[in-house]
Amino acid sequence: MHPWAAIVGVALILVILWDAFETIVLSRRVSRKFRITRYFYRVLWTPWRAAAKRMPPGNSRENLLTVFGPLSLILLFAFWALGLVISFGLLHWGLATQLTGPGGRAGFGEDVYMSGTTFFTLGLGDVTPRTALARALTVLESGLGFAFLALVIGYLPLISQAFSRREVNISMLDARAGSPPTAALLLRRHRREGGEDLRALLRDWERWSAELLESHVSFPVLSYFRSQHDNQSWVAALTTILDVCAFVMVHIDDGARPAARLTFAMARHAVVDMCAVFRLKPTPPPANRLPPEEEKRLESFLAAGGLPLEAADGASAKLTALRAMYEPQVQALASFLIMALPEWIPGAEVKDQWHTLG
Asked: How many Å is the Cα radius of gyration of the chain?
C-alpha cells in the first residue's frame, strides 16, 4: 500500500470536483485566490494573448483570439477529466485494491487505465476489480463520470444562450451607433425627427448591462468570446453606452437624465465587477479619449444634427469627472482582452456594417 498516494488522490478529487462545482453550478463570483480554473486560464491566456499582440490588427489576429474562448472550454473539461482519472488511479494504487489486467499484470499503469475506462463508462472488462473496495471505487467513479458528462452537456448550451443574448444588442448597435459604435452617432440618430425615444433605449441598455453583469461574473469564460465582426465587442458596446449616459447627464435636459443615471450606474457596476473578476487594476487610457478640441467638435456634430445641448457652467469638468469613473476600468478590460475602445466621434471613412456586407 502507498498511503500518501491515496491521500493525494482523495485531495485531488475533492479539489477538482469543488472547482468544477464553482465554475459550472455556482452562479456567483468566487473571491478565493486559489482556484484551479483561474490558474488554468492564466497559464493558457498569457501566451495566447502574447502571440496575438505580436500580430498586426486585422482578421488574422481576430481569428486567433476568436478560437480561444470555445477551445479553452474544451481544454478545461479535458483537464478536469484527466485529473479525475489520474486521481482515481492514485486511489486504487495507494489502497492496493488489487486490480488485475491481462496476463495477471498489475501496477500503477493498470490502475490508471482501469480508472480511465471506468470514468468514460467504456466497461471493456480487460482489467477487473478483485476486492470489495476496488468494486466500490469502480462504481463510484462510474457514477461520477456520468454526472460529469451530464454537467458538461448542460453547461455548453447555457454558455451558448448567454453569448447569443449578449450579441443581439451588440449587433443592433450597428444601425444605431455605427461599427465600431460611437456615442456621437447613437445620440444623433436617436434624436432625429421620428427617431426612437432615448429614454427607452437607455432602459434597454440598463437591462443589457445587468444581464451582462450576471452572466459574465458567474461565467467569466464568456468574456473571451468575441463578437461576430472584428469592429464590434462587448467592451466597446459597454463603453459607448457609458459615454452616452455621461454626455446626457451633463449636456441634455429633456427628461432622459434619470434613465441615463440608472443606466450609467448599472453599466459602471458591470465594468468594475469584471475588473474584480480578472483582478485588473484600473488603468487610465494612454491618450485622452475626448480632449477639449474633440469635445468642441462633438458638440458641433450633435448640434448640426438638431440635438439641443445645455451649456451649463462647468459642464466640461463634470463630463471629465464622470469619464474618470469608468474609463480606467474599460481601458484595463480592453487591454487585457485585446478589444479596442471606441471613439467618441466617427471617422469620415467609417461605414456601418450593413453597408459593407454583401
From this structure: 26
Residues 357, 340: Cα–Cα separation, whole Å: 21
Domains (range + CATH), the chain = 3-152 (1.10.287.70), 178-356 (no CATH)
Q: What tens-digit pLDDT sequence spans the chain (358 residues)?
A: 678 888 898 999 999 998 888 888 876 666 667 788 888 999 999 999 999 999 998 888 989 999 999 999 999 999 999 999 999 888 877 887 777 666 556 677 778 888 888 888 776 667 777 788 888 888 888 888 888 888 888 888 889 899 999 999 898 888 888 888 999 999 888 765 444 588 888 999 999 999 999 999 988 999 999 988 878 899 999 999 999 999 999 988 777 889 999 999 999 999 999 999 999 999 999 999 999 999 889 888 888 877 777 777 788 899 999 999 999 999 999 999 999 999 999 876 555 554 454 4
Beta-bridge mates of residue 99: 129
